């Protein structure tokens, strides 16, 4: 059972030893009670027992549960009398997944679960792809959610939730017309695609009909990976920045010493890297990033502008990220729209902002949405191409209405990439 955030395991025991009134030891029946940090049962916090006619009036699991709760309460009160122990309650896990009790076998290695191994592999893959090491993922079971649910939390707050049927497969049909296999209708949690949970006996039929079948662990891992990608910029703290700099020193100590803090502080570097990650730009080439900031950092204090220069220096990385087979399919931005945007930029001492009237914003958003929808089936993740000076302002504008659109500038495209315009945003 779950109680006060702990996992309590209660097991019947016929061989408990107690002392009789005459001082002799007697054998009693009752329950052995173990308290763990979570349902994986890896870290045991306490163990005690409850015997009938001693701690318990009768051989009742309910009474054993009440006894266990009372013991935990007493232990917690005594533990938190020490004010230093209260500070442990203030710690917030960077990434946490809570599982309903039906999903514990997927996570528990003792039950054959391979979830932890899959998380380790994802952390390795993401580090190689994006250039940052994400924090460890904390796994906990929870009695606050449904038995078949899991909850993904970033910095202590839930950002996503999903439902899993353990003994089923998530089936994605080739098309709506070919969706003929019976199952329980659901929505694939990572991408919001219509799907079905099908039982194991329908697996072969579904495969023959061209369905994509996903096992429960892969459903959760895919959902977790997409959440982490979307929130990676929140997870990059200054401690990790320092780890990245120390790692770079092993290969090029001079660039770190010359740039930090002479040209830019660790805090300013963090802001630039977070802006890059927010737009899914890898930061693995930290050496090039520092060289660019070393050149422009002393003269420019606007973080947005510094980020734009860094993006241009990473054009090979950006091109590789968004182009396919040496070709980049884009929607271009009309010169009239670009001039309208630049004419509405207001400069301030610590940066600049876009002061566009509501009517113009509405026209630009409608025109952009129309072009994006035209090519949505052809390109799931559309790219809009602008001039370098307009990119950051258009990105901030369109993000409010179409958050998953990639906005690139001409200076961020490598020279060997062929650009194919599929449409133009005009008003």
Structure description:
This protein has 427 residues and is of the alpha+beta class. Helix content is 40%, strand content 26%. The protein contains 14 helices and 18 strands. Strand 16, helix 14 (388-399) and strand 17 form a beta-alpha-beta unit. Helix 4 crosses helix 6 (216-235), helix 7 packs across helix 9 (286-296) and helix 9 crosses helix 10 (303-313). The chain is globular and about 95 Å long. The model has no long low-confidence stretch (mean pLDDT 89).
Rounded mean pLDDT score:
89
| Total helical segments | 14
The percent range for helix content is 40-55%
What is the overall shape? globular
Number of strands: 18
Poorly predicted runs are none
Fraction in beta strands: 25-35%
Give the structural class. alpha+beta
Which secondary structure elements does this structure contain, and how are they paired or packed?
Blueprint: E1 2-3, E2 6-19, E3 25-36, E4 44-51, H1 61-79, H2 83-86, E5 95-99, H3 104-107, H4 115-130, E6 137-141, E7 149-154, E8 157-163, E9 168-172, E10 184-188, E11 193-199, H5 203-208, E12 212-214, H6 216-235, H7 238-259, H8 266-278, H9 286-296, H10 303-313, H11 315-322, E13 327-333, H12 335-342, E14 345-348, E15 351-354, H13 358-374, E16 383-386, H14 388-399, E17 406-409, E18 418-425
Parallel strand pairs: 5-6, 13-16, 13-18, 16-17
Antiparallel strand pairs: 1-2, 2-3, 3-4, 5-7, 7-8, 9-11, 9-12, 10-11, 14-15
Defining key terms:
single chain, 427 residues, alpha+beta, four-stranded antiparallel β-sheet, four-stranded mixed β-sheet, 40% helix, 26% strand, globular
